[in-house]
């Protein structure tokens, strides 16, 4: 059952009345293999029904999670050989099956529909720092969300062999330091049958690109009350013990972490507020009209929309700092 079908079956968003609030239910979760828990979860992608690949940049590995039996195994280990990883940071499906990994040290690694390593390529012009997301477009080209050291724009587009093609989107004007502009750039990406969606990290703005380039973007929705533009003050936190009294950069500042298009064209957007310990889930129609919102008391990072309509996400336990992967079912009420 698709997410759209499930929502309508529950009377959530029918023609007779719009939903008022969103909540989520955890239908599965894991901390990893009992002998080797996840170090981090920085990306998740469904590669088949009930089968998920997770990226762990702390342990420098990819993990495979078979959700039904709850089995977690190592998919790719640390190294420089074919299919091995060094700093895996973002995952995305490929249009015809398989998946792509962005690795800060190794570039983009491609795995085919049989999950065999196919090839890798470096990104022309250097790596994208603190990348937020990656997507593979219909022509095989790749978009990475995040700032480059000499180009702090939000998005960077590369050919299927890694040649730089174009960049898009200036960071907020209130960020004056190069460091802040680079490290906060990016947002959530989602490939569509034609074109793709981009939810700017902050301020909240959902942009649709109609094709496989950055040409002719249209703004579908914007909410600067929920996510106002960043300033140097809002990305600076109080001094930490190791900072010797200097302010610290707020790496986990509020931002959009997931944007998904449902089968009927409606859009789900997720804003993660790590320091507050919650996440904001919004539903829009295909034209950007706001339909529903829910504040969930857990700071979920949303990564992928599964074929059955569930959302693949992760969070950090606030008490133990353990990284936990979850499968979420959306419920509108």
Fold blueprint:
Blueprint: H1 3-9, E1 22-30, E2 32-33, E3 36-37, E4 43-48, E5 51-56, E6 61-66, E7 71-76, E8 88-93, E9 99-103, E10 107-111, E11 117-121, E12 128-136, E13 142-148, E14 155-158, E15 164-168, H2 178-184, E16 187-191, E17 196-200, E18 204-209, E19 218-223, E20 236-237, E21 248-249, E22 255-261, E23 267-273, E24 278-284, E25 290-296, E26 301-305, E27 311-316, E28 323-332
Antiparallel strand pairs: 1-28, 2-3, 4-5, 5-6, 6-7, 8-9, 9-10, 10-11, 12-13, 13-14, 14-15, 16-17, 17-18, 18-19, 20-21, 22-23, 23-24, 24-25, 26-27, 27-28
Structure overview:
- There is one protein chain.
- The chain is mostly beta strands and about 325 residues long.
- It has a single domain (about 20-330), classed as 6 Propeller (Neuraminidase).
- The chain is built from 2 helices and 28 strands.
- The strands form 8 sheets. A 4-stranded antiparallel beta sheet has the order 1-28-27-26, with no helix packed on it.
- The chain starts with a helix and ends with a strand.
- Mean pLDDT is about 90; it is low at about 1-15.
